[in-house]
Amino acid sequence: MNDYYADLGVARDATADEIKKAYRRAARKLHPDVNPGPEAEEQFKKVSQAYDVLSDAEKKRNYDMGADPYAGAGASGFGQGFSFSDVMDAFFGAGAGQAQGGGPRSRQARGQDALVRLDLDLADAVFGAEKELTVDTAVGCSTCHGAGTQPGTGTRTCDVCQGSGHIQQVQRSFLGQVMTSRPCVNCQATGQVIEAPCYECSGDGRVRSRRTLTIRVPAGVDTGTRIQLAGEGEVGPGNGPAGDLYVEVAVRRDQRFQRQGDDLHATLEVPMTAAALGATVPFETFDGVSELDVRRGIQSGEQILLRGLGVTHLRGSGRGDIIVHAMVATPTKLTSEQEDLLRQLAALRDEEKPTGQVANPTEGSLFGKLRDAFKAR
Ligand SMILES: [Zn+2]
Ligand SMILES: [Zn+2]
């Protein structure tokens, strides 16, 4: 035998009002529209069945004397097929279960947000930029000013729903008669029908239009950064307020620099002779040409720092750095004269027969990092 009092969570001497309140509370928590999932659904069936018995004076009396009308039947389909609004309406009158009340809907609505992509060069991200952007969005129809009617014509009351925007239906259920209400298709729930749709916008009150915007891209943006332009998105139906426009930035790959946060990394080829003798090398940055001091004896992988010449921080102030990685270039083609000189040098340095000594790379150098990477495995 089912324990309907326990299912509803009420005492055996609960009043009809308390039983109703308990069911309402349970429906708000367990109705499949509110709480999708098999467990909640099963529980909802159970409390609906309990309510069916305890809310009916005769069934309740029989049950209290030991006769369970659903003994052995399991929780059946009680309460199924009625939306949460329907169940709430059955208790508290039409509209109780809906977020918005009844009545016709406005033809006007807020427009959707729009998203466009903007491709930028790294230099634009470093300093920020002003960019022109062509967008294609809905704008208000200038022929009907959003009304959707052809000039000189109007609207008439929808004869399907008599202007209410909704179609009411009565369904019989264990809750008694349930009034269900659904939006009228004939008038899109507005209660009014356009007699002659505007030829420009076909009654939508808006048309698509292409326009060019100038947008200010702040310094420091990176691929994926979104810039929000309030009210520049799609105008809503019936010339409703426009949504926002989101501009998503994509920074193109740069030939020279790899970005890491707000730092920029570059690799500098240093001729073998310059690496040995030291040199001052012109190096182009986004701020102009810098003189790079390549110290005498520099090794491949050593870094030269250009402080504050990287990308501007998007938030806060200041800029990242440029980090130049030296790469000593070994000559691959030698004239016979160059080869002679190099052989003489090798002889002078006693390097004609290298011994194959294992290097002990310094921390932070390219080879040091390589070694650490292998160690970590
Ligand atoms: Zn129009
Ligand atoms: Zn209608």
Automatic annotation (TrEMBL):
It is found in: Cytoplasm. Zn(2+) 1 binds at residues 141, 144, 198, 201. Its main location: cytoplasm. SUPFAM superfamilies: Chaperone J-domain, DnaJ/Hsp40 cysteine-rich domain, HSP40/DnaJ peptide-binding domain. HAMAP family: DnaJ. Participates actively in the response to hyperosmotic and heat shock by preventing the aggregation of stress-denatured proteins and by disaggregating proteins, also in an autonomous, DnaK-independent fashion. Unfolded proteins bind initially to DnaJ; upon interaction with the DnaJ-bound protein, DnaK hydrolyzes its bound ATP, resulting in the formation of a stable complex. GrpE releases ADP from DnaK; ATP binding to DnaK triggers the release of the substrate protein, thus completing the reaction cycle. This is Chaperone protein DnaJ. The lineage of its organism: Bacteria, Bacillati, Actinomycetota, Actinomycetes, Micrococcales. The gene is dnaJ.
